[in-house]
Amino acid sequence: MILTRRRFLKSVGATGVLAAAGCKSMSSGGGDGPGTPPIAIPMKPILVVVDIDGGNDWLNMMPPLSGANRAAYESKRPTLAIATDHASPLPNGAGLNADFTGMDELDALGRVAWIPGIGMNNPNLSHFVSIDLWGQGAAQPGGTGWLGRFADRAFDTRGDVLRGLTVTSDRPLMLRGSTRSFVSITSASGFVYPSLLRSGRVGAPYSPQLLEDGFAAAVTSTTSDAPSAPDYAAAAISGKLFLDAQNGFGTDGNLPARTPSVLYPGDADYPIKRTGGGNLSANLSNQFKLIAQMLAAGLPTEVFFTRLGGWDTHSNQTADHPNLMRALGGSISAFYEDLASVQTAEGNAQDRVMILAWSEFGRRVAENKGGTDHGTAGLSFCVGRAVKGGIYGDYPDLASLDKNGNLKFTVDFRSLYATVLDRWLGQAPSATDAMLGAAYQRLGFL
Amino acid sequence: MADLTPVSTWTSDDARHFARRAGFGLSPEAAAQLASQAPAAAIDAWVDGTGLDQTLFTDVLGTRADPVAEPARTASATAGSVSLPVEPGPHPYRVEVADAWRNNFSRSQACLAFRMQYAPYAFAERMALFWHNLFATGWHKVNNAALMLQQHATLRAHGLDRFDDLLVLVSKDPAMAIWLDSVQNNAAGTSVPNENYAREVMELYSLGADNGYSQTDITQLARALSGWSFTVSSAQVSTDPTDPSNKVVGSGTFRVYDGTANPDPYVWNLQQRATLPSMHGSGTITFLDRTFDLRAPPSGMAPGEDALRSIATSRGPQCATFLAKRLLVHFVTARFSSQDLSDVAAMIQSSQFNLRAVMKTLLKSRFFFDPASRFALVEGPVSWSVRAARALGYDLATADAQSPKGFPAWALVTASFDQAGMKLLDPNGPNGWSEDDAWLNSGTVRYRTRIAAAVALAEQSSTGTPSVAYRLFPGDVARWFPTPPASAQAVLDRLVALLQPAPFPAALGAAWLQSLWPSSFDWNASDAQNNARQLACLVLCSPAGQLY
Question: What is the pTM of this model?
């Protein structure tokens, strides 16, 4: 399915800016070229999921630059259309928005697999229904998420407590298994119950074991007076998970400090600013920095979950969307670069990590007054040293829309999941098909 | 089926269950006193807030200075700055128009937490918290603390109105108008309306996803509500005294932007406009199978308001079911049958969506008091924290008499609300927070231990120059025990009565006591009271302590 592509390295200003800021070149190994990954799939791969939350207007992230799609795009987006000279061309007639910081260079290195038009049958225009559908990732949606089911199968029920981890404070459905739950850790310090509790600052020295015993006893309780309240076990499991996780999380819940090897969006000296000046959001940067710190500290995490919100650009899109793209692209490219300086017991982190970005839907082709409303098919992409860069799937036809004026999808989102489960997370094809409830076509980027 | 007939008698234990769900808990003594009254009259009074003395609460909120909680700003801090008086306290400036320029988010959270801890009319606060989750609006986009608190005040004042009236009030609320882009919804001429609010008002606020409406209904309602915005008078503008160029919206007045003269100097974003922009769509729309003339609303209604109100009539069963589900998960149980749901929905419809009547019926019902509903829910972190503070902290009069006053410095604790999974006044999205067991994960449990430590262990902080040390939650252990406990077991029994966790294995309690009092028990021993604090913390942090 991979399209053969011939790509011209574009020399853009951003390269110079990054170099001026002291960033290393993106090219970290010999022989990098589009479609030819410099490394094979690593023995101990790590997946970092990026939730582009709110519905990314990817038509402006990867706008059509030529042909009938360009004409349709301009007619439906009289004020919001991205000018052709504000994007670097891709081989599919579209281009990468110049505000999508750093992604053009990663793409030129062949490190990005793009899946424009990814979506599903019977798409739902609700954020929350669509997020759930993407999270569940099954032919017959149930109460668990595709990565949760992976954890059910791959992780030890009681151990492996840090193998699946979200750096968000919630518990996304995508990560929910029937027997396993990912841990949520939002900071590199203090992931331990408070010092007041541990040190007995208030009174006599106090044994932390007491608290731990409370959860452990609840989890394993077989006594006849075990509480019947159904949520009691859920509370106990969450507490036990926290207590187990903190025991594997640094010293007294603190990871060794780490200074990132590159600048990230939001850092004062990061060269790319908001369109109106001022620092970009550090939200996603901070999540990536935390993950890099976790990997440097030797955490055994195999799947991470991150999120950048704010993409629900019903209004004010000309100001907000470029800033969001700068933060997203800048954070991903900085993270990719930063990982090269992280050594783990199982190899260099840049070799081990693949980033998978998704959004619950794309947005309406026709603009409203200043923004775009909810749409359907979206753009996913994967970034990594073992990724065969390129474009996977057809760009949707902007002249052939559904009855609500929305795009028709060209790649089933579960094809992406199937590819990742098989090829990146090492599941047998039959196991992958079982987790997804059906056999979906695999994409060729891994 | 859900038996919605009222109970005729109740016990002290029933009253505790009621107060946990319909307020923020009651002490065993107060619960016994409540239970001595007939349930029907007692619950009516609780819901209506009658017979409460709010004098001290109002007084403390409105007039007292609290230099500990709110250190004075000094003229010397910044060259050219003006000297500001000690902020009146503890919290009123955060709701006053004149101080909106501060846009102080954490203080606003603290203001609400303080209200919840001490408001005599606890039910109004509980309902406001419920509606805050349903009509979830986030400060990170509104970026205006005064407007956020104004919305919360609306939810507090009108949380027991008819649902369609409340829905209209929320739809006209300035914070909501910014949050879901009503201020940008322009359907004049051939403009394509912004459908953000129209979608979410049905999906999230009244019907549920895909429950009785189509994409066409969304675009039609977006047209009906186009131009719904607000204007700002001079008196509603708040100016930063240290930087007069910094002007902030302190409040707003609902208007439909229809090209007519602006009665106020400013439009919603503080631009001076003599004429309102023309944004309201014209003509007729068809919405939920009915036709509305946008230029001819019924008397007393804004253009488009009749369409908005029709949601509860054109889709009554769906709207009632939607509300029933939310009420059940917050107040009764998340494990209801489809029959329970339709029974409660039918009651809501037969009550004509009168929320006061609905809440009274629900909270008096045998269904509500069913033993299976006890401790059947995980409590959200905000009300969990407030309930612990009510149980263990000083009453308002005692706290107010302290020197330094040391009112619970909620602002130092509310940051943990975010990491405990409920960033008060700032939900991530308009869908609010999922309740019950979704409150629990490894991270949120960790931050509950942080909050429990602050509340139970008398954590100290200091502020000001010179530094003044004070306890975040003042309170002394002796007050937890009206009669000195004669045994370690008596300490645990009393704490369980105060904190009201779900039942837990006796062996667990025995292990705690064995560790804290390994040999003999002596309440007058130097460490006995600290042991009691630690035991309270253990109860709060335990699995049973998360349920209510």
Answer: 0.90
Residue B82 touches partner A, C-beta closer than 8 Å: no
**DSSP label at B246?**
E
Per mean pLDDT, which range of A168-172, A355-359, A396-400 is the poorest?
A168-172
Per-residue pLDDT reduced to its tens digit, B12-52: 999 999 999 999 999 999 999 999 999 999 999 999 999 99
Which of B511, B540, B449 lies closest to A223, judged by CA?
Answer: B511
Q: How many Å apart are CA B293 and CA A399, to the nearest integer? A: 34
Cβ-Cβ contacts under 8 Å for B217 (sequence gap 6 or more): B202, B287, B288
Written as six digits, the tokens of A82 are 């991205």
- Summarised one tens digit per residue, pLDDT across range A151-187 is 999 988 667 789 999 999 888 999 999 877 788 898 8
Q: Does B179 touch chain A (CB under 8 A)?
A: no
pLDDT confidence bin for B404, thresholds 50/70/90 = low
Q: Is B360 helix (H, G, I), strand (E, B) or coil?
A: helix
Closest CA to A360 of B312, B431, B42, B111: B431
- Count Cβ atoms below 10 Å from residue B96 Cβ, excluding itself: 16
CA distance B287 to B224: 9
Residue type, position B370, single letter: D
Nearest residue in chain B measured CA to CA from A228: B503
Q: ipTM score here? A: 0.87
Q: Where are the alpha helices (DSSP H) in A229-353?
A: 230-247, 283-296, 317-339, 349-352
Interface of B with A in 444-503 (CB under 8 A): 444-446, 449-450, 453, 457-459, 502-503
Cα B94 to Cα B54, B147, B167, B243: the distances in Å are 20, 10, 25, 18
Q: Please, is B35 exposed, middle or buried when counting C-beta atoms within 10 Å of its C-beta (0-12, 13-18, 19+)?
A: buried
Question: In whole angstroms, what is the distance from residue A410 CA to residue A392 CA?
Answer: 10
Residues B300-314 have pLDDT tens digits of: 999 999 999 999 999
DSSP B365: B
**Which residues, including other chains, have CB under 8 Å from residue A75's CB and lie 6 or more apart?**
none
The mean pLDDT of A411-429, rounded to a whole number, is 98
Segment 356-415 of chain B within 8 Å of chain A by CB? 374-378
Count of Cβ atoms closer than 10 Å to residue A258 Cβ: 18
Q: Any CB–CB contact under 8 A between B546 and chain A?
A: yes
What are the φ/ψ torsions at residue B136 (nearest 5 degrees)?
A: -60, 120
Residue B466 preceded by cis peptide, ω within 30: yes
Q: In chain B, what is the straight-line distance between the N-terminal and C-terminal CA atoms, in Å? A: 22
| Best to test chain B binding among A125, A231, A316 (most B CBs inside 10 Å) | A231
CA distance A69 to A81: 12
Q: Residue A236's closest chain B neighbor by CA? A: B543
Contact B278, B259 (CB under 8 A): yes
